Amino acid sequence: MKSAAAIISLAASVSAHTIFQQLYVDGEDQGQLTGIRVPDYDGPISDVTSNDIICNGGINPYHEPISDVVITVPAGSTLTAEWHHTLSGADSSDKADPIDPSHKGPIISYLAKVDDATQTDVTGLKWFKIHEDGYDASSDTWAVDKLVANGGKVDFKIPDCVAPGQYLLRHELIALHSAGSYPGAQFYMECAQLEITGSGSASPDTVEFPGAYAGSDPGITINIYQTLDEYTIPGPKVFTC
Question: pTM of the predicted model, to two decimals?
């Protein structure tokens, strides 16, 4: 177990951030910065009550021009999200790419149905969780550990019963290295613009952002520098068909 002094030193010295900036559909690269609302700055959101927790932006101004591409995704497809430390993409010389390994935590994906995936306003949307990966106590492995080992990539599936139409994909990484008190957890998220095709008709239960998370949630305020038997990923249960 790390000493308190070591923990404080680590939290103070580490400031490496990350951006979800590339999407693959069944292995097909859609292009860097294509169809994703990426910010110029790679910093985190820490306030779960802020509208910035929805699709980022705000204190992290959006990169111009904002992509107007809507990515076609057949229901049931496997998506691969790719993260990197900066908008320069992969950099093998950067020890903090795709993210500093100390930034351990879960990775989560949500969908919200919208009339127009390029719409500016993202408040009041109804989100349902389609993917989560947290902590495996048996191997002491976090979702972020897997992301780092895989060069910034994480795979997840679009449920095959999702109704066709336009959606925003909210893909999120939560770094818990400073999460011993609130606000301390660092939330990184971007929203990708999707057109889901298929013949599904599911009506999942939904949540709103802000509102889905509270600062007191055990998966948000937590000391990860201890022996953990389990970890409770914040937010609702994952929707399944």
Answer: 0.93
